[in-house]
Amino acid sequence: MNYLLLQNQLRTLEAEKENWVIKEKDFLHNSELLKDQIGSSLNMGFQLALEQVRVLYPDADLSPADISKSVVDGQLVDTDD
After folding, report:
1. How many angstroms from the chain centroid is the CA of residue 28?
2. What pLDDT band is residue 80 in, cutting at 50, 70 and 90?
């Protein structure tokens, strides 16, 4: 009798484990999608800001501007990742 009870508990726990594994895969997939969306949103925002600066200062040379740079002491510098 104890053996059957343990066997049923084992099946239940294995099913629960499989459900958790599936949920983990879903979370990881969604996490990657969100990372991609955040990156796209940041890039779009940067491009929109550049467009506004081009309208306000049409003669300005914006070629050094880059989303991966930071302003340090009034200079554009590569950002350390």
Report:
1. 11
2. confident
Distance CA 10, CA 5 (A): 9
Q: Which domain holds residue 64?
A: 2-78
Instruction: Collect all residues with Cβ–Cβ distance below 8 Å to 71 and sequence separation of at least 6.
Output: 77
The number of distinct structural domains making up the chain is: 1
> Quick one: how many helices (H) and strands (E) in the chain?
1, 2
Q: What is the DSSP string of 35-81?
A: HHHHHHHHHHHHHHHHHHHHHH-TT---TT--TTEEEETTEEEEPP-
- How many CA within 13 A on the CB side of residue 56? 7
Q: What is d(CA 28, CA 22) in angstroms, rounded to the nearest whole number?
A: 10
pTM over 0.70: no
List the structure tokens of 54: 């081009």
